[in-house]
Specification:
The protein is of the alpha/beta class. The protein is 48% helix and 15% strand. The chain has 8 helices and 7 strands; from the N terminus they run βαβαβαβαβαβαβαα.
């Protein structure tokens, strides 16, 4: 896809991978709408020339607001990037409200937005849905089972959606990043991919109309999983 002249909505686009991708899209001539919850980050994105919408996509009201915005500015590209983690250790106290918010933001919101915006996307001459999952959608780790479950769920949904839209003008792509240097991974000490490099590789995949973009070390994980899925799962569960 040539993104020049297109309009893109990037959820979670005021920080991390979303902001880096939004900037990369703008640099290629794409009009960008971002959404988030932090007023300061929203103001900063607006100052850079993006349309910035305050919306909490873990809530029905937040999804409603985004749908209303897209009625004003029809989009060609929907990037479902917004996501959050949830601490979950069954041996300790679990905050189920945080768990529910993680599921709502990471899995429910993308499904709702796609379902409610698909008519408009299908009306465009060319359109794309980009769902950002994770290498953990291929093989989970021990420390974040709820996050892994949401990303695996979104991966399965993306594959089925791609098949349903195969004969339409709407291209469906899944992005599987590795550990990227963002606020979400701030507490992790392992090697992380620079966020701008992750965004660059995602943009290359968008422009190439790829069905699946394994970014960085996720490429190796995908290869190992295809050859020996049991080994891949055992390795990641220790990660």
């Amino acid at each position: 896809m040539d993104v020049n002249g297109k309009t893109a909505l990037v959820t979670g686009g005021t920080d991390g991978i979303g902001l880096a991708l939004a900037r990369a899209l703008r640099a290629k001539g794409c009009r960008v709408i971002v959404c988030g919850r932090d007023p300061g980050r929203l103001a900063a994105a607006h100052a850079e020339g993006m349309e910035a919408i305050a919306a909490d996509l873990a809530t029905e009201a937040g999804c409603d607001k985004i749908v209303d915005v897209v009625r004003q500015w029809p989009i060609d590209i929907l990037v479902n990037n917004a996501g959050a983690g949830a601490t979950y250790d069954i041996a300790e106290s679990v905050d189920l409200n945080t768990v529910d918010q993680c599921i709502a933001l990471n899995l429910t919101a993308p499904i709702h937005l796609i379902t409610r915006l698909i008519t408009g996307l299908r009306a465009r001459p060319e359109a794309m849905i980009v769902n950002v999952t994770s290498g953990l959608a291929i093989a989970p780790n021990k420390g974040s089972p709820v996050y892994c479950a949401t990303k695996a769920g979104l991966r399965g949904f993306t594959m089925a959606l791609r098949a349903q839209l195969a004969d339409t003008r709407v291209h469906v792509m899944e992005v599987l990043p590795p550990v990227v240097d963002t606020q979400l991974t701030a507490s992790q000490t392992r090697k992380k991919m620079p966020v701008n490099e992750c965004a660059r590789q995602i943009l290359v995949a968008i422009e190439a109309n790829r069905a699946e973009a394994n970014i960085g070390m996720t490429k190796l994980l995908s290869v190992v999983h295809n050859i020996a899925p049991v080994i891949a799962r055992r390795l990641m569960l220790r990660y």
